[in-house]
């Protein structure tokens, strides 16, 4: 070995390869884990089957409306649990420590989880669309189907940031419980289970506080049940994502 | 300092406190190229904190930690190391081959997958999901992950815990092969025979301080104890009061004596008990040396 060993430089191709390998592993490991993938896909699809199909007239506006709101509900899950719960568990189990000691490129861990959440959210949207377009009797043009998929893939991101923040607050197996305390009330309060007009007035006024409310406005637009500008809602979601990402990054840097 | 003599890793005056408790108290540690350094010490001695500092996982409150002359948090420095931590729950649903490929992707010039697998003795496990492996097999996989990047420096934190004797011997062989390639190793271990079998240099830590540093022989010489064993009717307690005897006990019908002056004690033993038989005299192992060292520091602490 040469005494003046210069460290071998890492070619950009290999750095990119490391990011891809991390994202691929993250997707593979969770899509193979039934305890992760089943609750995430079953929650929203079973609810939709019950309330949107069995208790409804297939093809009605209600069925279309519920497809939009259960899509918003289903997309939140991969963000909150895929990102938040897994981060909390890996901080506890030592995997995050090992990754920080290894020369993993900066951010590859979080980007990998983000990709995984986007893939999982897309899977949920595909399942809900398949149900809606067949047994639900909903008819959507190709443009609307694509819009739904796009909302699913990008709408998961603010919830990744929120999940990441929760994942930095609590370590280990306690995280899923805490996340459910965020997930379920938030879904209810933003009108994902009952139409927002059926909630008490005060809660209706409060609804725009929740990121899920804004996501629901996007899914409602995608299925053609809402007109008007999307920009305020997109901006609101971006702001939520940025705020929680900053909070989480600060806590991660400080406490690991 | 030129690069040729520059240490591979270094702690200089490192201090680390957790709340009020002091984990490392002004520790200096230097690792040279191609050497295997064993860090020994009881639980809470500061071994894992030392490794954490060198890996950039924790920051020193005072003093410095360096890897290849760089801040350990610099990725350029960490691309030259391999790591096996005490506990890391790896993704159970990933197959061993996938884990190896992922870890190798972090490095500029990794080993071919088959070579890493062969070195760690896991060639037959590549297709198995990590979660289905036994504890010992999982440790071997973690060892493969540590060496797959062709590191110049390997950190092994308690690598053989949970391994059976056969697996442990295989790991020792692999470690020796890596050192022969020019790789430096920092090894923490509870198993003294492990340090004895592998290490060129041993650093003993206790309560966050370096108690002793040197080769295995130097460490033994430092507490120049020998162990005498024999079958005799002499009373162990009485022998224990002899001037040159450090300790004496009766174990399984045999008298066991620790002493720094074996020749004296043996002469006196033979005089005192002509019927004495099965006499054995042995140099102390690292275990005795280590117990002796930490007991001294206990006494100082008490005084």
Shape verdict of chain B: globular
Task: Give the number of domains of chain A.
Answer: 1
Query: Low-confidence parts of chain B, pLDDT < 50 over ≥5 residues?
Result: none
**Could you tell me the number of beta strands of chain B?**
13
| Oligomer state of the chains in this structure | heterodimer
Mean pLDDT of chain B: 88
Query: What fraction strand of chain A?
Result: under 5%
Low-confidence stretches of chain A: none
Instruction: Using a beta-carbon cutoff below 8 angstroms, give the protein chain pair with the largest interface and the number of residues from each chain.
Output: A-B, 35 and 40 residues
**Strand-pairing-aware structural class of chain B:** alpha/beta
Head-to-tail CA distance between termini of chain B = 41 Å
H/E element order of chain B? EEEHEHEHHHEHEHEEHEHEEHEH
Shape of chain A: globular
Radius of gyration based on Cα positions of chain B? 23 Å
Radius of gyration of chain A: 20 Å
What does this structure look like?
The complex is a heterodimer of chains A (256) and B (303). Chain A has one domain (12-255). Chain A is built from eleven helices and no strands. Chain A has helices spanning 12-31, 34-54, 61-93, 95-101, 108-133, 142-155, 157-169, 174-189, 201-206, 211-222, 231-255. The longest helix of chain A has 33 residues, at 61-93. By secondary structure, chain B is α/β, with parallel strands linked by helices. Chain B is built from eleven helices and 13 strands. In chain B, the strands form three sheets. In chain B, strands 5-6-7-3-8-9 form a six-stranded mixed beta sheet, with helices on both faces. In chain B, strands 11-12-10-13 form a four-stranded antiparallel beta sheet. In chain B, strands 2-1-4 form a three-stranded antiparallel beta sheet. In chain B, helix 4 (113-120) packs across helix 5. Chain B is globular. The chains are: A mainly alpha (256), B alpha/beta (303). The A-B interface holds A 1, 3-5, 7-11, 14, 17-18, 21-22, 24-25, 28-30, 32-33, 90, 93-95, 97-98, 100-106, 256 and B 3-4, 33-34, 55-57, 68, 75-81, 83, 85-94, 98-99, 101-103, 105-109, 149, 152, 155, 182.
């Amino acid at each position: 070995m040469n005494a003046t060993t210069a460290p071998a430089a890492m070619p950009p191709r290999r750095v990119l390869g490391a990011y891809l390998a991390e994202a691929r592993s993250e997707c593979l490991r969770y899509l193979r884990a039934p305890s992760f993938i089943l609750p995430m896909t079953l929650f929203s699809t079973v609810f939709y089957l019950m309330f949107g199909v069995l208790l409804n007239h297939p093809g009605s506006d209600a069925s279309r409306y519920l497809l939009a709101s259960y899509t918003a509900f289903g997309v939140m899950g991969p963000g909150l649990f895929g990102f938040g719960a897994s981060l909390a568990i890996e901080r506890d189990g030592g995997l995050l420590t090992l990754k920080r000691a290894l020369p993993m490129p900066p951010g590859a861990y979080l980007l990998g989880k983000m990709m995984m959440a986007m893939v999982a959210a897309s899977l949920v949207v595909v399942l809900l669309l398949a149900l809606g377009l067949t047994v639900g009797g909903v008819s959507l043009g190709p443009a609307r189907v694509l819009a739904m998929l796009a909302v699913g893939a990008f709408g998961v991101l603010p919830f990744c940031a929120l999940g990441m923040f929760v994942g930095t607050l609590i370590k280990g197996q306690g995280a899923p419980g805490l996340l459910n305390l965020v997930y379920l009330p938030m879904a209810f309060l933003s009108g994902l289970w009952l139409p927002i007009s059926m909630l008490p007035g005060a809660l209706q006024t409060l609804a725009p506080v929740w990121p899920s409310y804004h996501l629901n406005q996007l899914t409602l637009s995608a299925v053609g049940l809402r007109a008007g500008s999307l920009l305020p809602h997109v901006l609101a979601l971006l702001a939520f994502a940025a705020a929680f990402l900053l909070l989480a990054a600060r806590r991660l840097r400080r406490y690991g | 300092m030129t690069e040729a003599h520059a240490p591979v890793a270094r702690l200089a005056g490192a201090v680390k406190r957790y709340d009020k408790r002091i984990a490392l108290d002004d520790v200096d540690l230097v690792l040279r190229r191609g050497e295997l350094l064993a860090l020994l010490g009881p639980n809470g001695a500061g071994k894992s904190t030392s490794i954490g500092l060198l890996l950039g996982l924790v920051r020193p409150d005072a003093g410095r930690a360096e890897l290849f002359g760089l801040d350990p948090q610099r990725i350029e420095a960490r691309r030259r190391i391999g790591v096996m931590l005490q506990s890391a729950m790896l993704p159970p649903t990933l197959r061993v081959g996938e884990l190896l490929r992922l870890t190798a992707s972090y490095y500029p010039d990794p080993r071919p997958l088959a070579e890493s697998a062969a070195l760690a003795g896991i060639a037959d496990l590549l297709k198995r999901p990590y979660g289905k492996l036994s504890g010992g097999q999982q440790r071997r996989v973690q060892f493969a992950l540590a060496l797959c990047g062709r590191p110049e420096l390997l950190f092994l934190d308690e690598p053989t815990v949970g391994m059976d004797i056969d697996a442990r011997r295989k790991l020792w062989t692999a470690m020796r092969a890596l050192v022969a390639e020019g790789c430096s190793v920092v090894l923490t271990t509870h198993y003294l025979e492990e340090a004895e079998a592998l290490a060129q240099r041993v650093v003993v830590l206790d309560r966050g301080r370096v108690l002793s540093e040197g080769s295995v022989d130097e460490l033994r010489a430092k507490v120049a104890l020998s162990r005498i064993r024999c079958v005799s009717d002499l009373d162990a307690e009485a022998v224990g009061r002899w001037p040159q005897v450090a300790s004496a006990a009766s174990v399984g019908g045999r008298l066991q004596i620790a002493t720094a002056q074996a020749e004296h004690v043996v002469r006196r033993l033979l005089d005192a008990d002509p019927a004495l038989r099965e006499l054995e005299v042995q140099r102390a192992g690292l275990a005795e040396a280590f117990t002796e060292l930490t007991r001294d520091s206990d006494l100082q602490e008490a005084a």
